Amino acid sequence: MGCSIAGIIDEKGNRFSGEKIICAIKKMYLRANGLGGGFAGYGIYPGNKDDFCFHIIYNDEPVQKNTENYLKHDFEIVKGEPIPTRTVKSIVNRPLLWRYFLHVKDEIKKQFYEMTEEDIVMRSVMKINGAQTGAYVISSGKNMGIFKGVGYAADIGEFYKLEEYSGYCWLAHDRFPTNTPGWWGGAHPFGLLNFSIVHNGEISSYGINKRYLEEFGYQLTLHTDSEAILYLFDLLLRKHKLPMSLAHKILCPPLWSEIEKMPADEKKFYETLRIIYGSALINGPSAIIVSDGKRMFGFTDRIKLRPLVAARNGSKFYLASEECAIQEVCPLKKGDVFFPKVGEPAIGSLG
Amino acid sequence: MKKSLLFPDFTVIRDPDKCIQCEVCVRQCAFDAHSFDKAANKVETDASKCVSCLRCATMCPTGALTVSEYQQNIRKNKNWTDKQIKELYKQAETGGILLTGMGTDKDYKIIWDHILLDAAQVTNPSIDPLREPMELRTYLGSKPDKIQLKIKNEKLKIEKPLSTFYSPLTKLPPQLKLETPILFSAMSYGAISLNTMRALARASDECGIFYNTGEGGLPKELYKYGKNTIVQVASGRFGVDPDYLDVAAAVEIKVGQGAKPGIGGHLPGEKVTDEISQTRMIPTGTDALSPAPHHDIYSIEDLSQLIYSIKEATEYKKPISVKVAAVHNIAAIASGIVRAGADIVAIDGLRGGTGAAPTRIRDNVGIPIELAIAAVDSRLRGEGIRNRASIIAAGGFRNSADVVKAIALGADAVYIGTAALVAMGCHLCQKCYTGKCNWGIATQDPYLVKRLNPEIASRRLVNLIKAWSHEIKEIMGGMGINAVESLRGNRLRLRGFDLHENELKILDIKPAGESM
User: What superfamily would CATH give domain A4-249+281-349?
Assistant: First the structure.
């Protein structure tokens, strides 16, 4: 896939309007074809920061009614409302777009005593999306939300009035789909709990990544390979409790020839990682930005077949497919920009 | 003596203009098809004895010999073929079970030839293995679900080595490290010659892979290749002692094999020479009988006990494999084997080879390995235990494309037997059970054994493994994949062509033409 990706995080946690990320992604419109665009914003719902916020797209009202009944069974709905949008000529055939602020009911926590609250939320998301009835939960984290659809990203941003939100971390994606259909649920970012990712590339290993994830209860229903990366992060970070840097070494491990040259301890460590997590290796051209709300993490595939640029300026850290996107929103000085090397992630962290 | 109604399998034509009466053919044929007629002062041929191993035709210095199908025109009949008729005559004349060697030659559909591979175009660049790294390294053995860490230092600076911040608490069970996902299949001393074993051992050492002793024990001179040796413990327990277990890289419990599921083995006493007697640890000249079942395994819990007995005996330092034939209920059987504690499950399909098997069994029992791999891999994943054991697939792998397809279906590695023998000179005459192998492979006759030069045979095996590995890299590069772990179980890169809907379902692959 062609596609452009961008991300901005304020490492001091200062919130800023979504307008900036729209400008950045807009600059790279040549990499997209209008079949999908989207954004993830963190820190955008400070008033409900302790509730799980579900952004859901519905095909029609009956599906919405059924889904809301299901949500009521597992959750207390603190608030449910349509996601505000404005008329944008190029954005057509839009589904119903709703958001809900939710608490897991105590009785459900008791029923699934072996699960964490996050596990229960994941189960609900998988159930709704897996049923394939025309309801898709597109984000399910706290104090964050994903806004996406079919259209150029800049138009999607305008459609969702993102300039009215302010957050401390934003991801964006503009799509040029080739392998999979352009549809609202298939646009990036993909989100589960607090994780969201944007991906430029194609995963040659998707077939095994998918089957591996299914062993851990993930259902891959969004007709796109990029979804797998999101769940791999959720699996490694949340379920296996590994640090982000290690997850990166699992998804994009060093070559055996590099491992052979390492000191004994290090060699054994990497060998163990590759032996255990071979099925999680992401093969194929990729540039990826992932965030869990605390960090923004960018990396490429093992032989860097997709571009990724990073820059640091003041408290802000930027990632993008092309330097022009960063230039557009930030007057960069010499030395601000750098190109992450193969196998080395570029990280911006809160605090 | 009554005249036999059997008609020959082959016709041997000797070109009188080319033949120089040198008698090479007479000396080369252990089946006595050629003889020198002193009275007539010329070489004669009795084609009824010919097995079409082509040894004579290959060695003839003037190229005077041509072996072809028997030329007499028997009335064609699709139901009562020449083969069927001959087998009836043979049984009417002997009253015996029909014996044969190698894998089945029956005209079953070969599913490999109905599976097509994917390649990258435009959206995903293919990778040139001559310019870019391409990794085939494979580890066989049980893998933990996840890694657990001891965190030494929370704040991670990426430029510092990982091991200065974390140390793994998870201890990895023993693994076999393969530089390419291919191993030489079990072939026992007795069925094959010592020179053949030497060649397999040397080639394994050079290629960073493994060979398998089969159930005939391990000759002492091959102990030096222990790190490339998988030793078998079979129902006859031949050659099993502490040294045998100690020297090996892994131990395989042989429950069954694809060519003869449910059937034991029988090495006739005349083949039990002094050397074989020592290696198998049985008296010279006595029949070596492998019972059909292990007499201490009558159910799955017994298998578990044997697995753990061997693990205890080898101090949990070696992976334990269990080899079974692919039979109808293979998925459930494999699941049981994994839960019984095996680190590797080796599955031998319908086309698996053998040194000797009853023809009816070889040709009719079991299921194709393609379906078995898919069924087992899906079942183990469904149960969430796929990581607990590796899968080695066996049974008729002909080329590197078959290997790639097997791995994409879910195998970790493949065993090759027949292909390795052919590389060394086997011509698939299927007469291994006679012990008269003119190519010096499946024989103990000292005169025949020395025909196989272990140096040359080993070189040919190394070439074969290298050639296949290059081809696997080429195919993976075309798919845009640069590590074999991304191919393993990646059934999305396979498409079925001209396969029945049920076959597609079991293989869990899409039909050609259907996109992602």
Answer: Aminohydrolase, N-terminal nucleophile (Ntn) domain (3.60.20.10)
Q: Where do the structural domains in chain A lie, given as residue ranges?
A: 4-249+281-349
From A341, A349, A235, A308, select the one nearest A28 (Cα to Cα): A308
Q: Does A351 touch chain B (CB under 8 A)?
A: no
**Per-residue pLDDT at A179:** 67
CB contact under 8 A, B492 and A210: yes
CA–CA dist A114, B414 (Å, integer): 40
Euclidean distance between CA atoms A308 and A5, whole angstroms: 9
Asked if pLDDT for residue B445 goes beyond 90, the answer is yes
Q: Do A273 and B147 touch (CB under 8 A)?
A: yes
Structure tokens belonging to residue B233: 């413990």
Cα distance between residue A43 and residue A294, in whole Å: 10
**Structural fold of domain B176-292+306-511:** TIM Barrel (3.20.20)
- Tokens coding A12: 């001091």
* Contact status, residue A292 vs residue A201, Cβ threshold 8 Å: no
Residue whose tokens read 């939300």: A145
Suggest the residue from A239, A276, A304, A344 to mutate for an interface test with chain B (most B CBs closer than 10 A): A276
**Residue type present at position A57:** I
pLDDT higher than threshold 90 for residue B45 = yes
Closest CA to A5 of A285, A289, A251, A204: A289
Beta-carbon separation of A266 and B163 below 8 A: yes
Indicate the helix (H) or strand (E) that contains A277: helix A264-277
Tokens 């003889």 identify what position?
A: B35
* A65 band by pLDDT with thresholds 50, 70 and 90: very high
Q: Could you tell me if A207 and B489 are in contact, meaning their C-beta atoms sit under 8 angstroms apart?
A: yes
Of B175, B480, B491, Cβ closest to residue A204: B480
Q: Is B219 helix (H, G, I), strand (E, B) or coil?
A: coil
Contacts of A299 in chain B (CB under 8 A): none
- Average pLDDT, stretch B208-228? 97
Q: In CATH, which of 1.10.230.10, 3.30.70.20, 3.50.50.60, 3.90.640.90 is domain B10-96? A: 3.30.70.20
β-partners of residue A42 are A144, A169
